[in-house]
């Protein structure tokens, strides 16, 4: 066992899935000019899945921090600061749910318009 959780793979996965991957997803969303509805839906679901994985990693790191002799990881993962760490997954999940909702609402709006045009043709 290591003396701190900061050298564990779970910590680096937390960094990767809390900052790097969501940053790439947001950057891609802001730079792309045209995107399909299915891609938007997949990106939204991916953000929600990432948020769930972040939550799992935070729980795992909190358990691991209690078992290490280091006080630095206890100060981060086993204290009041931990509440602040849960804000990021909640934020990612909120954005993901909004993106999924937007894609579904757009699809249903288009389907209603198509249904209305079908009734007008009869």
Secondary structure layout plus pairing:
Blueprint: H1 9-31, H2 37-67, H3 71-77, H4 81-85, H5 87-121
Description:
This protein has one domain. α1 packs antiparallel against α2 and α2 packs antiparallel against α5. It has five helices and no strands. Helix content is 83%, strand content 0%. The longest helix is centred in the C-terminal third of the chain and has 35 residues. The radius of gyration is 20 Å and the shape is elongated. It has 122 residues and is mainly α.
Q: Could you give the order of the helices and strands?
A: HHHHH
Oligomer: single chain
Rounded to an integer in angstroms, the radius of gyration calculated over CA atoms is: 20 Å
Q: End-to-end distance, in Å? A: 73 Å
Q: Describe the global form.
A: elongated
Largest sheet: none
Can you count the helices? Answer: 5
Low-confidence stretches: none
Can you give the helix content as a percent range?
A: over 70%
How many β-strand runs?
0
Whole-number mean pLDDT: 89
Number of domains: 1
Helix and strand composition category: mainly alpha
Strand composition percent: under 5%
């Amino acid at each position: 066992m290591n003396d701190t959780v900061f050298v564990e793979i779970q910590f680096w996965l937390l960094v990767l899935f809390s900052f790097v991957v969501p940053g790439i997803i947001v950057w891609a969303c802001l730079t792309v000019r045209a995107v399909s509805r299915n891609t938007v839906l997949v990106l939204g679901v991916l953000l929600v899945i990432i948020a769930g994985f972040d939550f799992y990693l935070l729980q795992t790191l909190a358990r691991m921090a209690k078992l290490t002799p280091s006080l630095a990881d206890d100060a981060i993962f086993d204290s009041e600061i931990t509440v602040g760490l849960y804000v990021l997954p909640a934020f990612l999940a909120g954005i993901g749910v909004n993106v999924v909702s937007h894609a579904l609402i757009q699809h249903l709006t288009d389907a209603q318009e198509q249904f209305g045009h079908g009734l007008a043709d009869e």
